[in-house]
Amino acid sequence: MDQIANPAPGFLRNPDKVITIEPYRGTVTVRAGETVIASSTRAKLLSEPPYPAVFYIPFADIDFGQLAKTGHSTHCPYKGDASYWSVLPAEETGKDAMWAYEQPFDEMTEILDHAAFYSSKVTIEATPA
Hints:
By secondary structure, the chain is mostly beta strands. It has one domain (9-128): Metal Binding Protein, Guanine Nucleotide Exchange Factor, Chain A (Beta Complex), CATH 2.170.150. Helix content is 4%, strand content 44%. It is built from one helix and ten strands. The strands form two sheets. Strands 1-4-5-9-8-7-6 form a seven-stranded antiparallel β-sheet, with no helix packed on it. A three-stranded antiparallel β-sheet has the order 3-2-10, with no helix packed on it. The protein is globular and about 45 Å long.
């Protein structure tokens, strides 16, 4: 049966919406000053026009010791509810700098256990392979 258990309401309303997720061939490093927060050769690049593309990094490649979960959340009708973390070494600038969809809609399960960072709050370096 092709029924999905947790469909995204955004795709139900707008079936022509396109969001692509592809493996990034290279290394993505996230820093706050000189402190490395994440470094991964397994990042995924999510493209959702008209928004800028975003790197999603596996939880396993993120130093959660440098983060503090906050009470902030947002909702995307295509991806689900996002949880946020502050990047501690970035101090006030790092507030709610990382987000993740801990229970994404079925169409976006590729970003389960992955997180993204705001490039305005931390430094994100992508080095192609």
